[in-house]
Specification:
- This protein is mainly α.
- It has one domain: MetI-like fold.
- The protein is built from twelve helices and no strands.
C-alpha cells in the first residue's frame, strides 16, 4: 500500500511540474487569438488580426528571416567545428588541452552581458562591426560549447574496440571516421546541432550589443516591440515559433529517428 501511495504521490508531483512548465504555452495560445487590443486572459472574442499584423510587419518578418538564416548557418558551422574540436580534445593529448577546453567552454559560464560587451569591443575594431558576419561570429562563440560538450560526452562513452577492429582490418582514418566513428557519435552530434540552433535562434543578450536599426534578429525585434506596444502580436509570434520548433523536431525525428538512440 505504501508503494502504491508513493507512486500516486510521485505521479501527482510530476503532473504539477508538467503543468507548471506548460502553463505559459497554455496561456499564450488563446491570448494570440484574442480580439482585444491588449494582452488579457482569459481572451475576449476571437480574431486572427495579430497573426496578420505579424506577417504585415516588415520589421518583424525581416527579423525572423535574419534569425532563421543566422541560426541555420551557425548550426552547420558549429556542428562541424565542434565535432572536430571534441575529437581533438578527447582523442589526442594536445599541449595545454585543459586550458583549450576551458577557453572553449567559457561562453557557457560567462554572463551574457560580459560576453556581449567583450564581443562588441572586439568586433568594433574589425570590419565585422554591425554586420551579419559579426553576428555570425558572436553566435558561433556562444553555440560552439554546446556541440563540443555533447559530442565529447558521446566520445568518452564510446567503445574504442569497435574502431580498433575496423582499423585492424585496414580501414584508413577517413574511412574509419565516416563509416564507424561518426555513426556511433551521431546522437551527440544531433543533440549538439539542436542545442546550437535553439541557442542561436533565441539569443538576445549578446545580440543586443551587436545589432542596429538595419540589422536586428527576431528576439531583439520582439524586445524592442514590447517596449512600445502591449498588443497580442507577440503572443501570435510565440505560437508560430512553437509550431515551427515542433515541426523541426518532428522532421528531425522522421529523418533521423531519435528513438533509435534511446
Amino acid at each position: 500500500m505504501k508503494r502504491i501511495g508513493g507512486r500516486h504521490l510521485l505521479g501527482a508531483a510530476n503532473a504539477l511540474i508538467y503543468l507548471y512548465l506548460l502553463a505559459p504555452i497554455l496561456i499564450v495560445i488563446p491570448v494570440s487569438f484574442s480580439a482585444a487590443a491588449f494582452v488579457v486572459f482569459p481572451p475576449r472574442g476571437f480574431s486572427l488580426r495579430w497573426y496578420v499584423n505579424f506577417f504585415q510587419s516588415r520589421e518583424l518578418t525581416e527579423a525572423f528571416e535574419l534569425s532563421l538564416r543566422l541560426a541555420v548557418t551557425v548550426t552547420l558551422t558549429a556542428t562541424i567545428a565542434g565535432t572536430l574540436a571534441a575529437l581533438a580534445l578527447v582523442r589526442y593529448r594536445l599541449p595545454g588541452r585543459e586550458l583549450i577546453r576551458t577557453c572553449l567552454m567559457a561562453p557557457i559560464v560567462l554572463p551574457g552581458v560580459v560576453l556581449g560587451i567583450a564581443l562588441l569591443i572586439f568586433l568594433n575594431r574589425t570590419p565585422l562591426a554591425l554586420s551579419f558576419g559579426g553576428l555570425f561570429a558572436a553566435h558561433l562563440v556562444v553555440t560552439l560549447p554546446y556541440v563540443i560538450r555533447t559530442v565529447s560526452a558521446t566520445l568518452e562513452g564510446l567503445d574504442r574496440r569497435v574502431e580498433e577492429a575496423a582499423a585492424s582490418l585496414g580501414a584508413p582514418p577517413i574511412t574509419l571516421f565516416w563509416t564507424v566513428t561518426l555513426p556511433l557519435i551521431k546522437p551527440g552530434v544531433i543533440a549538439g546541432a539542436i542545442f546550437a540552433f535553439i541557442t542561436s535562434f533565441d539569443e538576445l543578450v549578446v545580440s543586443l550589443f551587436l545589432t542596429g536599426p538595419r540589422l536586428s534578429t527576431l528576439p531583439v525585434q520582439i524586445y524592442n516591440y514590447i517596449e512600445f506596444a502591449s498588443d497580442p502580436t507577440i503572443a501570435a509570434i510565440s505560437v508560430l515559433l512553437i509550431v515551427f520548433t515542433t515541426g523541426v523536431v518532428l522532421l528531425v525525428e522522421r529523418v533521423v529517428g531519435f528513438t533509435r538512440f534511446v
